[in-house]
Amino acid sequence: MKQHIKSLPHHPKKVVIISLIIAISIGTYEYIRINAKASSLTAEKEVTTSETVLSSSNLTLGFLAGGRIKAVYVKAGDVVKNGQILATLDAENAQGALTQARAAYATAQANYQKIINGATGPAIDVAKAAVHTAQVNLDGITQQQELLVKNAYRNLLNSTPEAVPSEPVSDYIAPIISGNYSKEVEGKIILSIYATGNGSNFSAEGITASSGGTVNSTTPQPIGDSGLYIKLPANFNTYTNVSRWVIEIPNKKAANYVSNNNAYQAAIENRNQTIKNAQAVLDQANASLAALVSAARPEDVAVAKAQVDNAQGAVQIAEAAYKNTIITAPAAGTIISVSITPGQIATPNSPAIEFLGNKSSN
What we know:
Number of helices: 7
Strand order of the largest sheet: 5-12-7-8-9
Radius of gyration: 33 Å
Order of helices and strands: HHEEEEHHEEEEEEEHEHHEEEE
Oligomer: single chain
Largest sheet: 5 strands, antiparallel
Structural class: alpha+beta
Helix content: 40-55%
């Protein structure tokens, strides 16, 4: 050992060379690691997933997960709706994990409820059945009442739509508006009607946009995606000089507006009162059940509640993993290009579908 120690000073060049090699190796490794991380971050910035919701933008969509592509539902030029599924991966494992997580969550909930309820018995079983019945009744009533309110609101929006001049005019003949307004938003539709060598053309803007087309006195033409149609009276061009028209939604000047508005307000009041009554029945059923069961130990309740929370978190993670196997439209828009086909192996964040959002998308 002593001879070995004494021999070190006789080889200083070897020590220096070895140190340089080690330093160069470490520096090279760090350079590669940092650049790889930077490239990864750049790729993440360049690929926009289906969770990004930006309108009036050209977006590149990709899968957040990797795997074999199962199906591609769109092609270049397709017009898609917000949330529409564009492509999917084989997701049997993700679907299975989600099913297991949901089952574990249901088991944890059942165990928690068992601890809360305490001892069982005929009276408790009857009380539980009453709670279940009251809950089902509340859910059904809520769904029914919401539908009634929605229908009443649609009737209100369809209070006899009509086109009026955008500027005050003492005498005019208006375009004929027909159809049923299908959107669920209030506002104005601005129509521009102008003469061409082939007849009259129109365009629309406002709560519905349309490049329009030829309009005549024989065939009603659709006004964008509003569900409404426009047709010109036979003597429209002879007696009317107005080029811009406004369709107010709802039409508060319509003869049926007051009755439609009253029906809508009544539907809202009836919904609120009916749901309130059903909720009171459920509250009473829960109170009766609570009075029958024995109090559980706080520590047992805390453990069971923690298990429920943990299982719920697992469900959320599994749902997110499954969602990562699907590309959905982040808004209404148009497919510009599709660079994937079924059977291919997709890597996370790789460009797959180029998408152009509509300016009116939310």
